[in-house]
């Protein structure tokens, strides 16, 4: 007998787990360490609320990191179509 499969949990993680010391946001997904660590315990609404604010966080990080170059800039260049 097959065990029931668990529903997939949506995540913004792109496996670039580096927390920016100035903002406290991961430069890959935009979440804080607390949000990353608690992600599986959040309910769907909490995760959706956090995800709604991530594009603005990541855009801010992207602009700041682009000026400084580094790994984030190389990653973005590699991901651009």
Shape, per Cα inertia axes: globular
Q: Given the helix and strand composition, which structural class is it?
A: mainly alpha
What share of residues is helical?
40-55%
How far apart, in Å, are the first and last alpha carbons? Answer: 45 Å
The largest sheet is: none
Rg measurement, Å = 15 Å
- Helix count, DSSP H or I runs of 4 or more residues: 3
Taken as a percent bin, the fraction of beta residues is under 5%
In the predicted model, the low-confidence regions spanning at least 5 consecutive residues are: none
How do the helices and strands follow one another from N- to C-terminus? Answer: HHH
User: Could you give the count of β-strands?
Assistant: 0
Q: Mean pLDDT score, rounded?
A: 82
Give structural notes.
It is a single chain. This protein has 3 helices and no strands. The chain is mainly α and 81 residues long. The longest helix is centred in the C-terminal third of the chain and has 25 residues, at 44-68.
Please give a quick description of this structure:
The protein is mainly alpha-helical. It has helices at 33-38, 44-68, 71-79.
Considering the chains and any ligands shown, give keywords for the structure.
81 residues, mainly alpha, 49% helix
